[in-house]
């Protein structure tokens, strides 16, 4: 297995800059407001200072990375939509017509779509082609992929972030497209976040309760057939995960190694964050939770990773839509740091 790139990237992740965080805290407390009164905006300002080492970093160049991959387990009827939607949506991302494109335009962010495992031949000048294989195998019969394929997909994510960093991007958001991927994510939650299957399996694209019960049985079968090793996140990812989930774990690890903030989208992206947190715990301080997805297991999954959501919007789309919305909150936090008057400059009496 060629995991050297992964290992060296993990080893290069630094601790966040404590001094910069303390300086941000002191500055926030000097501003004309009761201490702590801007809540999560203050937490974001402290965190971005710690991540970048700068009090007011320039995070204007930002990108959402949409990893796309297919799932063999769709044969079992776990999604409300057919697998063909994955490549069709990839074309939609490339044409700029998907929800994430609209929200990214509003947030001045680039959208980069990566084919890490779509089950179709795809070619487009704007597509980042890093295909590891044509979709996963049906995990109720065999492992979703080989261990080295999981590592290759993680590496594709790391290298995508490195490429975008070299082009000037300094803040990232995770997005994904892969029909069937709430099933794989639920399996990962069950093994690695110790969640009961009943909690982890949700309605995804909108199946009914009867189909959700079937989806629970599908996850149970996949776990019984593959027996993933809970102490080995890459083994679990390979057996019951997905190529786009692996790619996003790489994005999260890569962003941390480059000292860049990375905003984690909904249920599936947080499953990727769970993988990253297991194989590189030091990457977690570089992650920002974004929204609380309507997918039922998301609250517990966020807790397992140690993230808290910025917004509650009842969204359940994926693609990076919730994460991209949160670029606005990072902008707001940095503007507060930059523009607000201090007690001293405004002549306001302190407590
Ligand atoms: C048109 C369309 C666009 C989407 N964009 C994201 N997803 C979301 O739905 C899928 C996960 O749900 P499940 O596990 O139930 O298949 C993923 O592709 C996710 O990104 C979409 C789904 C559809 C149908
Ligand atoms: O929270 C998500 O990311 C999500 C939930 C349902 C379907 N697709 C994505």
Walk me through this protein's architecture.
The protein has 351 residues and is of the alpha/beta class. It has two domains: 2-57 and 335-346, Nicotinate-nucleotide-dimethylbenzimidazole phosphoribosyltransferase (CobT), small domain (5,6-Dimethylbenzimidazole Phosphoribosyltransferase, Chain: A, domain 1), CATH 1.10.1610; 62-329, Rossmann fold (3-Layer(aba) Sandwich). Helices cover 50% and strands 9% of the residues. It has 16 helices and six strands. A six-stranded parallel sheet has the order 3-2-1-4-5-6, with helices on both faces. Helix 12 runs parallel beside helix 13 (298-305). The protein is globular. The termini are far apart. The relative contact order is 0.18. The model has no long low-confidence stretch (mean pLDDT 98). Alpha-ribazole-5'-phosphate (RBZ) binds next to helix 4, strand 4 and helix 7.
Given helix and strand content, the structural type is: alpha/beta
In helices, the fraction of residues equals: 40-55%
Give the strand content: 5-15%
Ends apart, CA distance between termini: 60 Å
- Write out the distinct hetero groups bound to the structure: alpha-ribazole-5'-phosphate, nicotinic acid
Report the principal-axis shape.
globular
CATH topology of the largest domain: Rossmann fold
Number of helices: 16
Entry keywords:
nicotinate-nucleotide-dimethylbenzimidazole phosphoribosyltransferase activity, alpha/beta, Nict_dMeBzImd_PRibTrfase_N, 2 domains, Rossmann fold, binds alpha-ribazole-5'-phosphate, 50% helix, 351 residues, 6 strands, 5,6-Dimethylbenzimidazole Phosphoribosyltransferase, Chain: A, domain 1, six-stranded parallel β-sheet
């Amino acid at each position: 297995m060629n995991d050297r790139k992964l290992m060296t990237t993990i080893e290069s992740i630094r601790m966040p800059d404590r001094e910069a965080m303390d300086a941000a805290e002191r500055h926030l407390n000097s501003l004309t407001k009761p201490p702590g009164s801007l809540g999560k905006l203050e937490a974001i300002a402290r965190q971005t200072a710690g991540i970048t080492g700068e009090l007011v970093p320039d995070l204007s160049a930002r990108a959402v990375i949409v990893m796309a991959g297919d799932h063999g387990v769709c044969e079992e009827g776990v999604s409300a939509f057919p697998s063909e939607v994955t490549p069709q949506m990839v074309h939609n991302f490339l044409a700029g017509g998907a929800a994430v494109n609209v929200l990214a335009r509003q947030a001045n962010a680039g959208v980069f779509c990566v084919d890490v495992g779509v089950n179709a031949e795809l070619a487009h000048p704007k597509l980042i082609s890093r295909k590891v294989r044509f979709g996963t195998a049906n995990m109720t019969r065999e492992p979703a992929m080989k261990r080295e394929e999981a590592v290759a997909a993680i590496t594709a994510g790391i290298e995508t972030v490195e490429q975008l960093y070299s082009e000037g991007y300094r803040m990232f958001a995770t997005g994904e497209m892969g029909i069937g991927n709430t099933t794989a994510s639920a399996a990962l939650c069950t093994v690695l976040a110790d969640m009961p299957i009943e909690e982890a399996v949700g309605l995804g694209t909108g199946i009914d309760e009867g189909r959700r019960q079937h989806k629970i049985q599908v996850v149970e079968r996949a776990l019984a057939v593959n027996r993933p090793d809970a102490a080995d996140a890459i083994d679990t990812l390979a057996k019951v995960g997905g190529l786009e989930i692996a790619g996003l774990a790489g994005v999260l690890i890569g962003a941390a190694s480059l000292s860049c903030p990375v905003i984690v989208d909904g249920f599936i992206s947080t499953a990727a964050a769970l993988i990253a947190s297991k194989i590189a715990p030091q990457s977690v301080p570089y992650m920002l939770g974004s929204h609380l997805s309507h997918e039922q297991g998301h609250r517990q999954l966020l807790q397992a990773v140690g993230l808290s959501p910025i917004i509650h919007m009842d969204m359940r789309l994926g693609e990076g839509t919730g994460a991209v919305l949160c670029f606005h909150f990072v902008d707001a936090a940095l503007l507060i740091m930059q523009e607000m008057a201090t007690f001293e400059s405004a002549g306001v009496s302190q407590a």
